[in-house]
Design goal:
The chain is of the alpha+beta class. The protein has nine helices and 14 strands.
Length: about 375
């Protein structure tokens, strides 16, 4: 891709400072849970990487069909990247391993899984203790399984999600049915760390003001981004290192009708911008969406209260061997005559892209049109 200056890379820390939190117990949105009955006190700050989930369960459970189900759902491919990467990086731990290495009690995110019918299970005993007898008693009158969320059991900044069932079959049903809500909660637990990583080197307020003045959108931009191109139609922001190229495209499109807010509508807008503005050093090259090798995933969402269409997939360069992942948002405000199109795409050959795309997505979600 054509570019001018390059900006040196920044090293990001995986440790997020956390202020003192009063221990709280939360009900898992969308799941059958009332929260834990026992308050938990913590003294140390938790640590751990983005998307890392520590599965605390008995070895026999992890090695059997229940473990297969956990890996199937939580370790499934993250949508949508050129090379498969899991939604979460799972690490299995037992209570015995936590006793052997107390530092393992200070990790940020735990998924604690137990079959309550197993009276010999240490993990199930822990769940009964933390969730409380009254909550366990109500399961039989409900669907036979439950979910609870706690904060800060062994360290400040921890999120602990409990999955449990009265039988192995009920626990299996719990794992499959609760995955969307649990995954959402786990991603929410990562947001502060993603923010800290994304803006570790600070924010470029001058560049943000330049974007606001030209495009009418407020957006938080990290240091190291610069304006690669700005004309009467498009702003192209970039961050270049020796290993990755991170890019943001911003443009406004006159709103005509609802057909623009469709899969084909957002695809046409992105392909038009890619063909006109993005090429490699080889003649007769341009960027396009590649929805042949992998599907273009489109859904509706909201960006700071505004209706938006989200598209994610992979891009390639016609007549060259380049490609990568992208995420786009087409934002509609009925009070404005134009749609706002914001897009983030990366080029990082041979590098994992999941965490990088999450950082780029976080930036786009700060946009206020």
């Amino acid at each position: 891709m054509q570019t001018e200056n390059k900006v040196s890379s920044q090293k990001f820390s995986n440790r997020l400072p956390v202020t003192w939190l009063v221990v709280i117990v939360l009900a898992l949105s969308g799941c059958n849970s009332e929260g834990l009955q026992k308050s938990m006190e913590a003294e140390r700050n938790a640590f751990g990487k983005i998307n890392q989930v520590n599965v605390l369960c008995d070895q026999a459970l992890w090695d059997g069909p229940l473990g297969d189900s956990l890996r199937y759902y939580y370790g499934a491919a993250y949508p949508i990247l050129p090379q498969p990467e899991p939604i979460f990086d799972l690490r299995h731990l037992t209570l015995e391993q936590l006793r052997q290495d107390p530092l393992r009690k200070e990790l940020r995110t735990y998924l604690i899984v137990g079959d309550l019918a197993d009276e010999q299970s240490e993990t199930s005993a822990l769940i009964r203790q933390d969730v409380g007898k009254e909550k366990i008693r109500t399961l039989a009158a409900e669907n036979g399984y439950g979910n609870s969320v706690a904060k800060n059991k062994w360290a400040r900044g921890q999120t602990l999600v409990y999955l449990y069932g009265l039988t192995e079959a009920k626990l299996l049903k719990n794992i499959t049915s609760s995955f969307p809500a649990v995954a959402k909660r786990l991603h929410q637990a990562d947001e502060r760390l993603i923010e800290a990583t994304t803006y570790f080197s600070g924010e470029d307020l001058t560049l943000s003001e330049e974007v606001r003045a030209k495009m009418g959108v407020s957006i938080r931009l990290p240091e190291a981004f610069y304006t690669a191109l700005a004309d009467e139609k498009v702003m192209w922001l970039r961050r270049e290192t020796s290993e990755i190229s991170a890019n943001i495209l911003i443009t406004k499109v006159p709103y005509t009708d609802q057909s623009q807010l469709t899969r084909e509508g957002i695809k046409a807008i992105r392909n038009e911008i890619g063909k006109e503005y993005v090429s490699s050093s080889i003649a007769n090259t341009y960027m396009r969406i590649n929805d042949v090798d992998l599907p273009l995933f489109v859904e509706t969402t909201r960006i700071n209260g505004d209706y938006a269409l989200e598209a994610r997939g992979i891009w390639d360069i016609v007549n060259d061997f380049m490609g990568g992942a992208f995420v786009s948002y087409l934002i509609y405000d009925p009070a404005k005559p134009d749609l706002l199109f914001i897009d983030a795409f990366v080029h990082a050959p041979g590098k994992e892209k999941r965490d990088l795309m999450q950082e780029m997505e976080y930036i786009l979600h700060t946009a206020k049109y």
